[in-house]
Amino acid sequence: MSSSSPKGLSRIAANRLHKELKEWQVNPPTGFKHKVSDNLQRWIVEVTGAPNTLYENETYYLQVDFPENYPMEAPQVIFTQNPPLHPHIYSNGHICLDILYDSWSPAMTVSSICISILSMLSSSTEKARPVDNDRYVRNCRNGKSPKETRWWFHDDKV
Amino acid sequence: MAEEETEEEVEAAIAVYGADCTVIRRSPPYLVVRLQPRTANDISQQYPSVPPMLELKDTKGLEDGKVSRLLSELRELADELTSNPMLVAICEKALDRLTEMNQPDGNCCFCMEPLVMENEVSNLRPFMKLLSCFHCFHSECFIRWWRWMLQRKNLDKSDVLLISRPEEEKDVIASCMKLLEEAEMKCPVCRKSINIQDMLSIWSILTADLGQEQDFLPDAEVIFSNTEIERKAKFDELFRAQQHRGGIIEPRKLEVIVPGMFVSLPSARADDEESGLASSTLQASESSSSSADARGELLQVTDNVSLGGQQTGQCEDSGRGSKSSERFNNPLTQKKGRRPNHTGAKKGYWVRRDHEGSK
Predict the structure, then answer these.
(1) What residues of A are in contact with residue B111 (Cβ under 8 Å)?
(2) Fewer CB within 10 Å, N side or C side of chain B?
(3) pLDDT for residue B311
(4) What long-range pairs does B23-30 form, CB within 8 A, spacing at least 24?
(5) Active-site positions, per UniProt (chain A) (predicted)?
(6) B241-300: pLDDT as tens digits
(7) Which residues of chain A approach chain B closer than 8 Å at the C-beta?
(8) pLDDT value for A104
């Protein structure tokens, strides 16, 4: 993703992320590994599909980018490399999940986002792309952030 | 006669058994009377020789751990006081413990710092509570979020906020109602809509004049944590390596050099780049000086003069000609304390003010 020169984290954001990182190191969400890097503003998180689900033992990578005003503003969360086949995950890695956009609350954390995403994967009953995948991905060709999309959340089952 | 007697008997039964007596038919009488042993509902038979059952109800806002701790403490007390009157004692104990527990647990959801520091005598960062859901936040964190939300909804400049100091209470209520109508704020933790009672209780906090937004103190715990120290060390090392290989481009200083200013040199390069800097200074002063012939005389480089801490210090008086430069080497003026002590010496030079007065 080529996001146009992101602004650095505010001090409040950096403080909060340090707290989250520390908490993660003590108590990481089950099924997730964070490869600690020098970049506090971009986390790469490894996800392993939960046992007895369609994605059992499959490994995927989430890229979490934090805005200057985190946690007021939601982080941008996308799958990198090969996104899982899922009715709410587009082939460019964008995820249709309300808490990442309209329903974001500053009380949520990277950890809680990860748990929501794993739960979304676990409750899937078919490995398929969203029906409007091609149209959406074509629209996002120039590296648009999923946060610029006007999402329409309709399915509360998966 | 017999009928009347029967009637009276039925009346008597109704009077005695009250709600337990249901009359199906008065004549001939057909009654259903619910009878219980007289001791069935009577706890006084057992209490206080057997401690009463205790339960905590409606414990919203009290953390689970605290609820179970409180309950077990109360049960212990009840066991202890068995065979004695204890009801008031138990209630008082519960009241005391609740008073002690009356501070929020856990962290502020915005900054993840504890709301109440355990060993802190004075709580440096005040917190607030939403009345309808009992969720607590640092006041400053909540205000920052509140303003951010209003800004996002383009309400930060709305008239509602202009009446931030209403004279009368009804104005406050009206303002709150209007704001809530337009903004529809929800508790960031539980998403319960913030209602008028919540608003009224936090109104003074929300409209308090914070002046300059205060950044809270940097979190020493984080900054001096091992991970952060390691991270910094790694970066410093990288930086030095890159600097060593000439990969760091120093940003150009945008300072405008004016006569009377002390210009510092980067200490490591002061010697070998002295001439280069002097010429760049010349170019800078050229623009501020109208006379071209002044160029050569504008600068006087006083190298190795100790002027710790006064990188951009300015001369007090101007237009003294060459005398001003003599003053710097005069021990008398040095003693007057114009210059701080000689530790932390910085290389640099003063830009003469010769031509300022004559312009």
Answers:
(1) 12, 15-16, 19
(2) N
(3) 44
(4) B27/B3
(5) 96
(6) 888 887 777 656 556 666 777 777 665 544 444 444 444 444 444 444 444 444 444 444
(7) 11-12, 15-16, 18-23, 25, 38, 69, 71-72, 105-107
(8) 93
Amino acid identity at A153: F
Residues of A in contact with B191 (CB under 8 A): 105
Contact B255/A at CB under 8 A: no
- d(CA B192, CA B180) in angstroms, rounded, equals 13
Residues of A in contact with B148 (CB under 8 A): 69, 72
Query: According to the model, what pLDDT value does residue A52 have?
Result: 92
Q: Residue B116 and residue B137: Cα distance in Å, rounded?
A: 10
Contact B52, B43 (CB under 8 A): yes
What pLDDT does A26 receive? 92
Q: What is the 3-state secondary structure (H, E, C) of B243-272?
A: HHCCCCCCCCCCCCCCCCEEEECCHHHCCC
Residue indicated by tokens 């500053």: A106
Lowest mean pLDDT among A11-15, A154-158, B9-13, B284-288: B284-288
The DSSP line for chain A is ---S-PPPPPHHHHHHHHHHHHHHHHSPPTTEEE---S-TTEEEEEEEBPTTSTTBT-EEEEEEE--TTTTTSPPEEEEESS---BTTB-TTSBB--GGGTTT--TT--HHHHHHHHHHHHHT--S----TTHHHHHHHTTTT--GGGS---------
A15/B188 Cβ within 8 A: no
Please identify which residue in the block is written with the tokens 């390691």.
B230
| Bridge partners, B31 (sequence order) | B23
Q: Per the omega criterion (within 30 degrees of 0), is the bond before A67 cis? A: no
Q: Where does residue B136 rank: exposed (0-12), middle (13-18), buried (19+ CB within 10 A)?
A: buried
**Closest residue in chain B to residue A70, using alpha carbons only:** B110
Query: Which residues of chain B lie closer than 8 angstroms to A15, CB-CB?
Result: 111, 218-219, 222
* B124/B270: higher pLDDT: B124
Query: Is A96 in the active site?
Result: yes
Rounded CA separation B278/B285 (Å): 10
B111 CB within 8 Å of a chain A CB: yes
CA distances from B101 to B104, B123, B134 (A): 8, 16, 14
